[in-house]
Amino acid sequence: MKFRKKPVVIDATQWFKHGDHPDVYPATTGNTETWYADVVGVKCKDLGMIDTLEGSHYVIPGDWIITGVKGEQYPCKPDIFEMTYERIEE
To answer: pLDDT tens digits, residue range 17-41?
Structure first.
């Protein structure tokens, strides 16, 4: 079976650094964070975290923070965001 996503208007903010979004907080600097920072090619101090319905998720500069239809928040990589959403006029 195939399905099409229903058209839903969301709010989104692109995150680049700490302070860009009130719900993104600095990641700790443990082994997991250091490893993840190396894998994605950013400095550990530039990693962010955001709490979602599924638990905490990493945020790296350029990620979008989406607020869903029930107020839930989650990060989205820029390439996925571009393929999934288009800007509308407000």
So the answer is: 999 999 999 998 888 989 999 999 9
84 neighbors 56 (Cβ within 8 angstroms): no
Q: Helices (DSSP H) in 1-90: which residue ranges?
A: 31-40, 78-84
d(CA 71, CA 49): 17
C-alpha span between 2 and 55 (Å, rounded): 28
What is the enclosing helix (H) or strand (E) of 75? strand 73-76
User: Is residue 65 within 8 Å of residue 13, measured between CB atoms?
Assistant: yes
User: CB-hemisphere CA count at 13 Å for 90?
Assistant: 3
Task: Classify 14 as helix, strand or coil.
Answer: strand
Strand bridging mode 55-59 / 73-76: unpaired
* 19 token code pair: 């302070």
Place of tokens 């490893």: 35
**pTM score, two decimals?**
0.86
